[in-house]
Automatic annotation (TrEMBL):
InterPro entries assigned: DRL_cat (IPR048423), Gfo/Idh/MocA-like_OxRdtase_N (IPR000683), NAD(P)-bd_dom_sf (IPR036291), SAF (IPR013974)
SMART domains hit by this protein: SAF (SM00858)
The SAF domain, residue ranges: 361-426
Protein name: SAF domain-containing protein
Pfam families cross-referenced by the UniProt entry: DRL_cat, GFO_IDH_MocA, SAF
Domain of life: Bacteria
């Protein structure tokens, strides 16, 4: 039975899926715009550090005040309304909640909320890729032990890539490469919140008139977000990250099978089974023809001459040999699609992409020459960007994860482009996020024999 039919059946039976959203930013707001339009869904609570900001988000997406006027979670559950609060922990602990969505964007908050979901037996949808890459392999194990589902977020690119990979493998095709598109030039790695708008082409008037967060936008531009998302895909799809970070080859949709094949066959990949991000602009700044800036893809290989002939007969774009072909989705709708994850967990008991083994990590890397005593400012900031690397290399080099590179003070000078290690910073070993990450590192060192 389809998802929507099963949701309608739950609505008719008076058993809606009870959902709590933590974090009412852009992604969360996009889901808020759709949740009331979906049968069988009751958004019972919205938790945000600023309840007034959450209420403003609800108003912006078209909610009437009466719909979120409940003064307690119990009242909201009883009346079919929504409770707005700043107490995420109480929401997660409530008997009136089935599924929790973490859309905070904070690695530390995401880890805290995921562990609370495990404690209180709540399924969790981790929109927060920063938290997932920082500690997702360990969080997924904790969730499995607790008997709850830990899921990627439909609408976000990692989940959409995982869907394509799963499709290809389920019909017997070997996935050669999977990833997404973005706008990239090498100089973007040095971008800061002060320079980001020029790279995006936004005018001062546009920035002044919109809800723009310079550091968040810069994390997309400087390569950090791409690295995080590809680490999530590597960890969720049993694919390998490149040894020296993403290459961002310029590539349009028609050239995916030609570019994203092994070097031995004329492509750019060291081997089959990789993740990679393609750029929507050439290195000289010219636009790529039929670019994939907003989309996702999977390249796969025909296992036989017969399948190669089928590729040709049904119009798939292939490389010159006919062996490699690609499927892609040109756009993603982010939080507007999140209801797919909610429905899949509630009625099929399936995640929409799930973190598995730890294959890819994202290390803090200096944007410029840094001096001892400087304080790191994390994703999209002035000091470091995130570089994708194999987990074994990250563990050997004691790489500082980008998700913890906030407010840590450097103990030595770091050269531009140099990886920052745990030994290079002063950190609080008592922080929950640090403890969880170090536990994960110790666990996988033992499992990998490092």
């Amino acid at each position: 039975m389809s998802l929507i039919r099963q949701l309608k059946a739950r609505a008719a039976a008076g058993r809606p899926v009870r959902v709590a959203l933590v974090g009412a930013g852009k992604f969360g707001s996009m889901y808020l715009s759709q949740a009331p339009r979906t049968p069988g869904i009751h958004l019972v609570a919205v938790a945000d550090l600023s309840p007034d900001r959450a209420r403003a988000s609800l108003a912006r997406v078209g909610w009437e005040d009466a719909r979120h006027a409940a003064t307690s979670l119990a009242q909201a559950a009883r009346e079919g309304s929504t409770f707005v609060t700043d107490d995420a922990a109480a929401v997660i602990a409530s008997e009136h909640v089935d599924i929790v969505i973490d859309a905070t964007g904070s690695p530390a908050a995401g880890i805290r909320h995921a562990l609370l979901c495990c404690e209180h037996r709540k399924h969790v949808i981790m929109v927060n890729v920063e938290a997932d890459v920082l500690a997702g392999p360990l969080l997924a194990r904790r969730a499995a032990e607790a008997g709850v589902i830990y899921s990627m977020a439909a609408g976000d690119q990692p989940a959409l890539i995982a869907e394509l990979v799963d499709w290809a493998r389920t019909i017997g095709l070997e996935v050669v490469c999977a990833g997404k598109g973005t706008k990239y030039l090498p100089v973007y790695h040095q971008s800061t919140p002060e320079t980001v708008w020029g790279h995006y082409g936004f005018s001062e008037a546009q920035v002044a008139g919109g809800d723009f967060n310079a550091q968040m936008f810069n994390s997309f531009l400087d390569g950090t977000k791409s690295a995080l998302e590809m680490a999530a895909v590597a960890n969720g799809c049993e694919l390998d990250p490149p040894a020296d970070g993403l290459a961002f080859p310029p590539c349009g949709v028609d050239d995916l099978p030609h570019v994203l094949r092994p070097v031995a066959d004329g492509g750019v990949l060291p081997r089959k089974g990789m993740v990679e991000v393609v750029s929507s602009i050439e290195r000289d700044g010219r636009p790529v023809f039929r670019d994939l800036r907003w989309g996702v893809y999977a390249v796969f290989e025909a296992p036989s001459r017969y399948v190669m002939d089928c590729f040709q007969q049904y119009g798939l774009k292939t490389d010159a040999s006919g062996r490699y072909a690609a499927m892609y989705k040109p756009y993603h709708l982010i939080g507007l699609e999140l209801g797919i994850s909610v429905a899949s967990i509630a009625v099929r008991h399936e995640a929409t992409g799930a973190t598995g083994t730890w294959r890819g990590d994202v290390a803090a890397t200096a944007k410029r020459a840094l001096r001892a005593g400087e304080k790191l400012d994390g994703e999209g900031g002035h000091t470091v960007y995130g570089k994708l690397m194999p987990t074994a290399d990250s563990l050997r080099r004691r790489a500082l994860p980008i998700g913890l590179a906030h407010d840590m003070v450097l103990l030595r000078d770091i050269g531009a482009g140099e990886l920052v290690s745990w030994d290079d910073v002063r950190h609080d070993a008592g922080r929950q996020a640090v403890q969880v990450r170090r536990e994960q590192e110790d666990l996988f060192r033992r499992e990998l024999g490092l």
